[in-house]
C-alpha cells in the first residue's frame, strides 16, 4: 500500500476506537515503554495528543517522565516554515490549542534539537522496516532529520505494522522502535 491508502485506512480504523478503548490501549503502550532501555537519557520529546484525531493519549507517558524526573520537551508547529519549535515543559508552561486542534506551548524556554535524546513519534501507521506514515505535512521528518544521529526515535501506534510502505522516501527518517498495546517492535 502507498502512504495515501495507508493514511485513509488508519484514520478510518482510529475513528472506530471508543474513548474507553483509546484509554486502555494508551495505558498498555505506556506500560510497554517501561521495558525499553531508554530511561537513562535526560531530554525526552513528547507530543501532546490531538483528541479529535483520536491519537494515543500521552498523559501516562508524561506521568512516567515526570516521575523519573526527566526533562520533557514539547513543540509548537510553525505552519509557514513547516518547522517545529521545541520548549521545555515546566509547571509554568501554558498550553493552548492551535487552529488545527494541536495542544501547544504558548512560549517558554526553547530547547535546541541537539539536546533531545529520545523522541516519542506520533504516526498513523508503520511498517516492519521502521518506516512511518504521519499526516503528510512533514513536520516530524524535518524535526527528526535535525536531531543528532544517536537520538532514539520511538513510534507509538494502536495497530500492528504493515508489511511495507510502498512509496517511502529515502529522506523519511526511520524509527528505532515502535510500541503498540501488544508488542515492542525494534528496527
TrEMBL record:
Coiled coil: none annotated. ATP binds at residues 3-7, 132-140. Substrate binds at residues 50, 55. Its cofactor is Mg(2+). Its EC number is 6.3.3.2. SUPFAM superfamilies: NagB/RpiA/CoA transferase-like. It catalyses: (6S)-5-formyl-5,6,7,8-tetrahydrofolate + ATP = (6R)-5,10-methenyltetrahydrofolate + ADP + phosphate. It comes from the Bacteria. The keyword Metal-binding applies. It is an enzyme of class 6 (ligase). One of its GO terms (biological process) is tetrahydrofolate interconversion. Keywords: ATP-binding, Magnesium, Metal-binding, Nucleotide-binding. One of its GO terms (molecular function) is metal ion binding. PANTHER family: ATPASE INHIBITOR/5-FORMYLTETRAHYDROFOLATE CYCLO-LIGASE (PTHR23407), CHROMOSOME UNDETERMINED SCAFFOLD_24, WHOLE GENOME SHOTGUN SEQUENCE (PTHR23407:SF11). Belongs to the 5-formyltetrahydrofolate cyclo-ligase family. This is 5-formyltetrahydrofolate cyclo-ligase. The gene is ygfA.
Amino acid at each position: 500500500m502507498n502512504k495515501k491508502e495507508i493514511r485513509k485506512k488508519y484514520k478510518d480504523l482510529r475513528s472506530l476506537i471508543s474513548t474507553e478503548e483509546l484509554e486502555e490501549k494508551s495505558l498498555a503502550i505506556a506500560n510497554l515503554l517501561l521495558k525499553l532501555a531508554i530511561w537513562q537519557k535526560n531530554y525526552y520529546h513528547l507530543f501532546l495528543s490531538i483528541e479529535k484525531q483520536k491519537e494515543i493519549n500521552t498523559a501516562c507517558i508524561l506521568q512516567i517522565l515526570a516521575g523519573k524526573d526527566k526533562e520533557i520537551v514539547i513543540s509548537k508547529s510553525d505552519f509557514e516554515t513547516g518547522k517545529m519549535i521545541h520548549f521545555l515543559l515546566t509547571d509554568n508552561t501554558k498550553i493552548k490549542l492551535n487552529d488545527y486542534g494541536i495542544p501547544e506551548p504558548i512560549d517558554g524556554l526553547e530547547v535546541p534539537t541537539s539536546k533531545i535524546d529520545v523522541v516519542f513519534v506520533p504516526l498513523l501507521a508503520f511498517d516492519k522496516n521502521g518506516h512511518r506514515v504521519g499526516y503528510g505535512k512533514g513536520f516530524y521528518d524535518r524535526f527528526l532529520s535535525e536531531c543528532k544521529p544517536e537520538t532514539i526515535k520511538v513510534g507509538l501506534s494502536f495497530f500492528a505494522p504493515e508489511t511495507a510502505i510502498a512509496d517511502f522516501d529515502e529522506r523519511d527518517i526511520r524509527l528505532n522502535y515502535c510500541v503498540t498495546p501488544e508488542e515492542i517492535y525494534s528496527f
